[in-house]
Amino acid sequence: MDYESSLIERERPPVRGAAEAGRRPADPAPSAGGFERSRFVLAGSSRAFACFILLYALPGLLGHEPWKQDETYIAEIVRSMSATGDLVVPTMAGETFLEKPPLFYWLAAALARIFAGVLPMCDGARLAAGVFVVLACGAVARCGRRWRGREFGRTAVFVLLACVGLETYAHLMLTDLALLAGVAVGLAGLPRWRQSPVASGLEIGTGVGIGFLAKGLLAPACLSAYRAGGPGRGAALAPDLGRPSCMPVRQRCLPTGSG
Asked: Looking at the predicted structure, is the pLDDT value of residue 96 above 50?
C-alpha cells in the first residue's frame, strides 16, 4: 500500500454493522419537477396578511380623474346608469352599449351612490375594482389550499399579486377584474366536487355567474375545460394551466386593460 492509499484509508469513515445501516433514513424520493424540493411557503399572521392585501388593493383607487381609455367610458356608463336608474341596458352618451355585461357597472353605480356624500362619483365607482381584487385574492387563497395544500394559500395570493401589470390594472375601473374574481371563485370550488358536490356546485356556479356577468362566455369556457379531460384530471388541472399551450387562457383571465 502506497502513501496516498494509506491516507484515503485513514479519512474513510468506519463501516458500521448492517443492522445499524438498515436503520438509516432513506433519501426522500424526488418529486415531479422538483416541486417539493423548491416549494415556497409563506407563514405569518392572518390579520397581517389581510392588511397586506388591503394595502395592495386600496391605495390608488381614490384621488384622480378617470384615466384613458377604459375608465372614461366606464365612468360615463356608471353616471348614466345612476342618473336614469336603468340597470338592464347600459348606455354611453345616450347610445346603447352592449359590448360588456353589466355586473361591474352595477357594483360601481351602487358604491358611487353609497359614498356620494364623501367621494366624487368616479372615486366611489372605482372602489368596485378594489372589491373584486379582494374577492379574487380570497378565492385564489382557497385555490392554493385546496389544490396543493393548506400551507399554499398565501403563496398563491403572492404569486397572483406578483403578476406583471396587475399592480396597475387592479386600481382601474375594468370589467376584467370581475372576470378574474369569477374564474378564481369557480376554480376554488372544483377540487371538492366529490366530497361536497352541493357546496362545490354552488361555488362553481357562483364563479360562472360572476364571470358571465362580467365578460360573457369566457369564464364558463375556462371552467368547462376541467370537464374536457374527465373527472380524474382534477388534480392535474392546475399544473396544466402552467403549460405554454394554456397561455391564451391565462392571458384572457388576467386583466389586460381592454375594459
From this structure: yes
The pLDDT value recorded for residue 124 is 92
Which of 87, 173, 172, 170 lies closest to 135 in space, CA to CA? Answer: 170
pLDDT tens digits along 185-234: 999 998 888 888 899 899 999 999 999 999 999 888 888 876 555 444 44
